[in-house]
Amino acid sequence: MSDFKRARSDEQKEQRMQEIKDAADAMFNREPYHRITLSALADALGCSRTQIYKYAATKEEIFLELSSDKRKEYFDAMMAAFPEGCSYPLNVFAEVWAGILNAHRDFLRYGDILLSIIETNVSVERLALYKRQYYDDLGRILDMLQGQLHIDRDSATKLYTTVYFQAVGLNAYCLKSPPAWKALDMANLSTDPLDFREAIRDFIVMCLDRYCPDANDGNGGAAR
User: Fold this and answer.
1) Handedness of CA 18, 164, 117, 175 (dihedral sign)
2) 91-129 as b/e, with b when 16 or more CB fall inside 10 Å?
3) Backbone angles phi, psi at 31, to 5 degrees
4) What is the C-alpha separation between 121 and 97, in angstroms, rounded?
5) Is the pLDDT of residue 3 over 50?
6) Is 150 helix (H, G, I), strand (E, B) or coil?
7) CATH-assigned architecture of domain 60-215
8) pLDDT digit string (tens) for 162-199?
9) What is the Cα–Cα distance from 178 to 32, expressed in whole angstroms?
10) Separation CA 41–CA 37 (nearest Å)
């Protein structure tokens, strides 16, 4: 990236930030989060750490941007899969939702470190912008859930939140780190493999039963 430092226009600056995010995302797919540093990112990009500082003061600010990108991709996939006017049976709704989560497991990996790590080391201004965008985007998803499932706002919020945090935890369990596998082997322990898509689908079915009690009462709810 020999011309990294010569970015002048807003378009060039956006391109540089995208290159930084791409490098961080690629590194996160190979390395534990704690091993990723601004110096390592600078080396991967062929620039200096000082140049990185022009775009982000901490690596968490980069990962906050990545988390936002992954969330938007996931939300867009949800909105495309459940367009206004469609009426899936609840078991199909659960299957489709599980498939979307399975296809966006990188979004869940970022979610695993979002609250406890990323959000703790970014500027209040950046975090406020992130939160504003998050709740704006979430509003679209809640509107969709209300319309598709004929439930109130509170139930839609609880449904989304419950499924999200379960998916984050399941994903982390299914993607055990190499040290975790090594520790299990050293302790002569084994765990049965878990199919993420199947497990989260079954969980979504339970949640739909809990939060959509009138779905099959003949009053217009989604069919089972």
Assistant:
1) negative
2) eebbebbbebbbebbbbbbbbbbbeeebbeebeeebbee
3) -120, 150
4) 32
5) yes
6) coil
7) Orthogonal Bundle (1.10)
8) 999 999 999 999 887 667 767 878 888 877 778 999 99
9) 10
10) 6
